[in-house]
Amino acid sequence: MSHYQEDYAEYMADEYDMEDIDDDMDEEFRGRYMSGSDSDLDEYDYMNNKISDTSAAQARRGKDIQGIPWDRLSITREKYRQTRLEQYKNYENIPHSGEGSGKDCKITQKGASYYDFRLNSRSVKSTILHFQLRNLVWATSKHDVYLMSHFSVMHWSSLAHRKHEILNVSGHVAPSEKHPGSLMEGFTQTQVSTLAVKDNLLVAGGFQGELICKNLDQPGISFCSRTTYDDNAITNAVEIYVTPSGAVHFTASNNDCGVRDFDMEKYQLSKYFHFLWPVNHTSLSPDGKLLIIVGDNPDGMLVDSSTGKTVMPLHGHLDFSFASAWHPNGVTFATGNQDKTCRIWDVRNLTRSVAVLKGNLGAIRSIRYTSDGKYMAMAEPADFVHVYDVKSGYENEQEIDFFGEISGLSFSPDTESLFIGVWDRTYGSLLEYGRRRNYSYLDSLI
User: Fold this and answer.
1) Domain ranges of the chain
2) Confidence of residue 7 (pLDDT cuts 50, 70, 90)
3) Mean pLDDT of all residues in 399-418
4) How far apart are CA 83 and CA 361, in angstroms?
5) Where are the WD repeats (predicted)?
6) Kindly report the CA angle at 103 between 101 and 106, in degrees rounded to 5?
7) Contact assessment for residue 275 and residue 257, using Cβ atoms and an 8 Å cutoff
8) For residues 386-406, average pLDDT
9) Quick check: helix, strand or coil at residue 313?
10) Are 77 and 69 in contact (CB under 8 A)?
11) What are phi and psi of 136, to 5 degrees?
């Protein structure tokens, strides 16, 4: 992962330049991209204390899903979309990587609809702290979502339409339980860079290598640890998994080139692997034997999860990678890169990827498969989430199109819901989609 301060400032400057795309553009729609809100206040609060959400029924009647009043602006949605496609600057660590990656890309059929729009909740403000790290939204059921909002981890119930704070890291956070190796003094003003939530465990990773673990069914913090005191310590990704014996573990990927496995039954570090470059993301295979390693190197690796030894390098990407995911069958997996592509791999032949999928604007920063393996979703840094039909060989896709930086995406474990966090000063929100079902057998009842 890039050096934060210098590269982030440059990226922010590039994004701010985009505000001047049209001198005639209404002020209401200016100053939005990469300019996160300082509060949960919205322009509609002062009128009726209710932020204007968008329902599926309203969207069917023609309302913009984000509530953007295009009829009051001096630019159409189509024109603004075209301008974004032309002017959005993709961040690259290796210059022109996005230009060189297009020749191998699969031509897909767009226009499919696997997930239908359900609700845009603008009262839920999803935020991003590091521009390259976008794994800050996690669904534990079709109605329950956890996400970062400034210094808070929030829970949102799409059923009750209510949010509440789960963890606040703006002040001092310390464990309420005693475990060997836990930092009882805790942390102060943690900057959360990444998040993972699975079942009842929440793990937040920080800029200084902090790890904060909380059991959602218990009060207080369960465990705190600092992975490293290295100057380049940021926690880039966390993955929670359950071993074949039923033990809960998580893997932390860090900028100090380390990958660490923690046993949450014993609250102890169980494995540590060191690599030659910063690790931005890891994914454990369904059988627990193989680990995808991607980071600050165009080539990724498939390694033995017990020893950390390389099984096979992954050649093909042209820039640094920040996303990976296994298909539930344990045979294929995906990696996402700043060269604007997602590559699909087959463990039976890793000499080259079996498919290359291209984004519209920029890097592929988050990848998720549904638990039944039928669909794969990949998120660009802004504006686009692509949902692919895996059975079609990734030939058919649904393209979800909106405006704003993407903080993360998550399928619910039962595959029924898809949630997308949108970070934007005015139109920041949580988008909710529901899986489209064909209940043709009900036709006989009509």
Assistant:
1) 97-435
2) low
3) 98
4) 11
5) 314-355
6) 95
7) yes
8) 97
9) strand
10) no
11) -120, 20
| Residue 150, Ramachandran bin (φ over 0: left; ψ between -120 and 50: alpha; else beta) | left
35 touches 430 (CB < 8 A):
no
Give CA–CA dist 410/298, Å, rounded.
26
CA distance 2 to 256: 12
Q: Using pLDDT thresholds of 50, 70 and 90, give the confidence band for residue 1.
A: confident
Q: Is CATH 2.130.10.10 correct for 97-435?
A: yes
**Per-residue pLDDT at 66:** 97
- The per-type count for the chain, helices as H runs and strands as E runs, is 5, 31
Q: How far are the Cα atoms of 1, 20, 190 from residue 7, in angstroms, in the given order?
A: 10, 22, 21
| Cα gap 287→284, rounded to integer Å | 8
Please give the DSSP secondary-structure letter assigned to residue 349: B
Burial class (CB in 10 A: 0-12, 13-18, 19+), 382: buried
The span from the CA of 31 to the CA of 237, in Å, is 30
- Neighbouring-strand partners of residue 237: 253
- Mean pLDDT value across the chain: 89
Concatenating the DSSP letter of every residue in 52-88 gives --EEHHHHHTT--TT---GGGSSS-HHHHHHHHHHH-
What the block records as the tokens of 305 is: 């999860």
Q: How far apart are CA 239 and CA 286, in angstroms?
A: 13
Q: How would residue 51 be classed by pLDDT, with cut points 50, 70 and 90?
A: low
- Helix, strand, coil content of the chain in percent (nearest 5): 15, 40, 45
Pairing of strands 192-198, 201-206: antiparallel
For the sheet containing 290-295, what is the strand order? 279-284, 290-295, 297-304, 310-314
Phi, psi dihedral angles at 17 (to 5 degrees): -60, -25
Report pLDDT digits (tens) over 259-290. 999 999 999 999 999 999 999 999 999 999 99
Q: What percent of the chain has pLDDT over 90?
A: 82
Burial class (CB in 10 A: 0-12, 13-18, 19+), 249: buried
pLDDT (tens digit per residue) in 188-200: 999 999 999 999 9
Q: How many CB atoms lie within 10 A of CB 69?
A: 11
Q: Which of 314, 176, 365 is nearest to 377 (CA)?
A: 365
Phi/psi at 209 (5° precision): 80, 10
The enclosing H or E element of 301 equals: strand 297-304
CA distance 89 to 154: 31
Q: What length is written for the chain?
A: 446
